[in-house]
Recover the amino acids of this structure.
């Protein structure tokens, strides 16, 4: 059976994606910063490995311990909802280190074996926030838009070697730990001058009738991984599909 290595499997989209690939008979390397066996069903097709995508030694260890990887899913990421004025540069660096450079570093570590075998797929999870400018998301969006641009070029670089690269764009998913994780980082809050704008953003979310579920993203990653005709950019989630269609 093919093997998928997925980053950020402790919760949310990564956890659901690991479940779905296991359910469909694949071997799964579920990676987490703090490995926990109990979040996934026990299986002799499951390997849970420690991986922090911002740590080069951790990446090297995890990729070596994983063995052959047919599909690499770069899902690990952190959120941030604040205007640039409310974003300390060390925080911006942390976001780019995880979302952007973490994805690049994992991809770089995974490519050699795929290139040598002449097959493999890299699936990068970004976001529909990259489809149009939104308030309070300048830094987060930039970190994900960079991954979009990187992946589009990567697909060209790797095509001659039989390796595909695809982008899955989830919409807003209130049921993952993403919002809580982002809020925990935002101890200083949003600058007062932007309070009304922030209220408007929260009010518009409260009216959203469409959202993304973790299963939508897992299905999107599955399609990106298994369907050679999958488009380069795949919106995942009812809101994501609607947003992408509205922009066409
Ligand atoms: N939820 C949304 O509305 C939404 C929408 C569009 C795109 N996305 C993107 O979808 C992806 C998954 O988000 P989610 O909603 O499932 O959020 P989540 O529940 O917070 O999951 C994020 C995962 O990334 C992991 N992670 C964070 N920093 C890491 C690092 N340095 N190394 C390895 N793993 C790390 C977290 O692990 P720990 O448990 O160790 O923190 C967690 O497993 C992210 O890339 C996010 O940007 C989310």
């Amino acid at each position: 059976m093919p093997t998928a290595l997925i980053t950020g499997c402790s919760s949310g989209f990564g956890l659901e994606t690991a479940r779905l690939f296991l359910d469909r008979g694949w071997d799964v390397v579920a990676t987490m910063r703090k490995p926990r066996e109990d979040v996934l069903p026990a299986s002799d097709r499951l390997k849970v490995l420690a991986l922090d995508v911002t740590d080069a030694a951790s990446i090297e260890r995890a990729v070596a311990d994983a063995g052959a990887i047919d599909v690499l899913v770069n899902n690990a990421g952190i959120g941030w909802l604040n205007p640039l004025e409310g974003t300390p540069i060390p925080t911006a660096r942390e976001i780019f280190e995880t979302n952007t450079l973490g994805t690049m570093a994992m991809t770089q570590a995974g490519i050699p074996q795929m290139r040598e075998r002449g097959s493999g797929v890299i699936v990068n999870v970004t976001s529909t926030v990259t489809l149009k400018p939104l308030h309070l998301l300048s830094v987060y969006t930039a970190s994900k838009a960079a991954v979009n641009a990187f992946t589009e070029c990567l697909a060209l670089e790797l095509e001659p070697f039989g390796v595909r690269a695809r982008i899955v764009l989830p919409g807003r998913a209130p049921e993952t730990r993403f919002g809580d994780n982002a809020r925990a980082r935002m101890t200083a809050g949003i600058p007062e001058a932007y309070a009304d704008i922030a209220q408007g953003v929260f009010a518009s979310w409260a009216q959203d009738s469409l959202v993304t579920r973790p299963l939508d993203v897992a299905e999107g990653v599955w399609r990106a991984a298994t369907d050679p005709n999958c488009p380069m950019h795949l919106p995942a989630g009812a809101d994501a599909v609607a947003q992408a269609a509205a922009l066409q």
Observations:
- The longest strand covers residues 163-170.
- The chain has a mean pLDDT of 98.
- Residues 7-14, 32-34, 51-54, 75-79, 98, 102, 125, 127, 170, 172-173, 176-178, 181 surround NAP (CB under 6 Å).
- The beta strands are 3-6, 27-32, 46-50, 71-74, 120-125, 163-170, 233-236.
